[in-house]
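Q: I'm a student working through a structural biology exercise. My instructor gave each of us a protein and asked us to get a predicted structure, then write a short paragraph describing it. Mine is DNA-binding MarR family transcriptional regulator. I'm not confident about reading structure output yet, so if you can add a plain explanation after the tokens, that would really help. Here is the sequence I was given:
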Amino acid sequence: MTSGVPAADERGWADLADLVLALGQRVGARGHPGLTGPERAILRHLAHRAPATPSRIAAATGLQRANVSAALGRLQARGFIRRQADPADGRGVTVRLTGPGRAAHQLVRRECAGLLAAAAADDATGLDAALGLLGRLRDGL
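A: Happy to help. First, here is the predicted structure for DNA-binding MarR family transcriptional regulator. I'll explain a few features afterward.
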């Protein structure tokens, strides 16, 4: 065992990682028509952690900085984000969602919620525990 995880737990953590990746692929393909995966990731990030610099968005989403810049340009052209001078450093910019950006993000969330609820046959047993664990994992990474 080279992962540092106790052998008794390693399989469970690996299975969880496989499930999270598979769900992410399936759920990530859904959402607002006309938005790319990087654009949805940026909206999701900004909905929870705005304002943010493009570099921080890239680091948080795992996207390449050039891809973030291109996606930000498309989102700004659609009126979903607003860029402004960074108050801490006038040379940089920060990015925020606009009203239409928040609405687009909420549309994606509603569609994804419906997709997952239907897949679980509307049985929310264990949902709070799953949210707690996944939130701790996100924060720990």
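A: Here are two points you could use in your paragraph. The first helix runs from residue 7 to 28. The longest strand covers residues 89-97. It's a good idea to check both against the output above yourself.
Q: Great, thank you!
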